[in-house]
Amino acid sequence: MKTTLHKSQTRGYADHGWLKSHHTFSFANYYNPERMNFGVLRVLNDDTVASGMGFGTHPHRDMEIISIPLEGDLEHKDSLGTSAVIRKGEIQVMSAGTGVMHSEYNKNKDEKVKFLQIWIVPNKKNVTPRYDQIDIEKEKKINDFQQILSPNPEDEGVWIHQDAWFHMARFEKEFSKTYSLKKNGNGVYVFVLSGRVRVGDIELSARDGLGIEEVNSFTLEALEKSEILLMEVPMEL
């Protein structure tokens, strides 16, 4: 098993006043040649947006963009005609494809919003842009891997143009479970949202990340009550 450890305090950080963002991988003004991506996982931003503020309308193309709110309400608008609010317990996906314009704002005037912004390099270019969001809270599972994203429209969760699978793991203290990879050659990026976990002899705390390659399976053990996002992705861009 090959591993790459990213402790939370080693991430890039940007403070724009209205936006505070931690970057696991190189993004905007944060550049680290050793932190460009984990396979097709190109961006993992841990964003906090001040009340009433947000990202104005801007373009994307040929990227799969996933947002997972952790606190508060995020208001989305795009050139596809979508106007939606996404909340904790939901997941949003946008296939930029041939091109899309969008904005993301904190809908509330009295509280901040926290969310993960994730970019995945697609396996198809120039696709028709699309938007989707679903409630993943109603299918919430304890002490299991809950699939929230896959390549297949008919599967659980949202889908994207890539052989990637995302799972949420909400484990009670001292619970452990083995994750088996869906596709040979893929890797898994483990990102701890809260709590403390162990993979092999590596301990991870909140906002630590661990890239895992060259395995068919691995065991995740919760050292305390924990919530973890597992992102299985192809390792070749």
From TrEMBL:
Entry-linked InterPro entries: Pirin, Pirin_N_dom, Quercetinase_C, RmlC-like_jellyroll, RmlC_Cupin_sf
A GO term for molecular function: metal ion binding
SUPFAM superfamilies: RmlC-like cupins
Entry note: cofactor: Binds 1 Fe cation per subunit.
Record-annotated Quercetin 2,3-dioxygenase C-terminal cupin domain positions: 148-233
Co-factor(s): Fe cation
Keyword Iron: yes
Gene3D superfamilies: Jelly Rolls
Pirin N-terminal domain sequence ranges: 11-120
Chain residues that bind Fe cation: 58, 60, 102, 104
Keywords: Iron, Metal-binding
Coiled coil: none
UniProt xrefs under PANTHER family: QUERCETIN 2,3-DIOXYGENASE
Family the entry assigns: Belongs to the pirin family.
Descriptive protein name: Pirin family protein
Organism for this UniProt entry: Chryseobacterium lacus
